[in-house]
Design brief:
Layout: E1 6-13, H1 18-27, E2 31-33, E3 36-43, E4 46-53, E5 58-64, H2 71-75, E6 80-83, H3 95-106, E7 110-111, E8 114-119, E9 122-127, E10 136-141, E11 146-150, E12 159-166
Parallel strand pairs: 3-7, 8-12
Antiparallel strand pairs: 1-5, 1-6, 2-5, 3-4, 8-9, 10-11, 11-12
């Protein structure tokens, strides 16, 4: 069955209010996600995976061709601050931003820790969500096992922090 083309939108809400805004959007008939990233956090002297908002305050939602968003209903949701739009006034995400949300959806909005191999001064992802995310690593925090990924100049979202764990390179032969 062919998946219908759906427009994707982004809104900004009060950080901490993402869950209630997602529930309200779902109630209005939109499919909404507020992406979560699993990061290594210190707990009792050990690093453990803990969920955090990937982009605090940001919510992405879809509307089909026959379901044009009712902006007044969406603005009326408590905790919604603004509906994001491009400089030309369009609201539907496009190009790199649309592809980013499709990547998030492949992982149901939960970005788990990715496995990486250190190759000299470079890091290569061998497993996990970062393996298929286009972008450039711009910063590594080895003690927290996190990397900052720049999504490129074409994306409205510039940098996301994600968890990694180093693994040994598989021997070829």
């Amino acid at each position: 069955m062919e998946e219908l083309e759906r427009d994707v939108y982004c809104l900004f809400c009060i950080a901490g209010g993402e869950s209630s805004v997602v529930r309200n959007l779902d109630r209005l008939g939109y499919q909404a996600i507020s992406p979560v990233v699993l990061k290594w956090k210190p707990v009792d002297g050990q690093l453990k995976k803990r969920p955090c908002r990937l982009l605090p305050g940001y919510i992405f939602f879809e509307a089909g061709q026959d379901n044009v968003p009712d902006w007044s209903d969406i603005r009326a949701i408590r905790k919604v601050l603004r509906i994001l739009q491009y400089d030309d006034g369009t609201r539907a995400l496009r190009e790199a931003d649309y592809e980013f949300v499709q990547w998030l959806k492949r992982y149901s909005g939960v970005i788990d820790v990715s496995q990486a191999v250190q190759e000299g001064t470079k890091i290569r992802f061998v497993n996990g969500p970062l393996k298929d995310l286009g972008g450039t690593i711009v910063k590594v925090n080895k003690s927290r096992k996190q990397v900052a990924v720049n999504l490129g100049s074409e994306s409205a979202i510039k940098i996301v922090w994600c968890g990694i764990e180093y693994v040994e390179a598989e021997k070829e032969g």
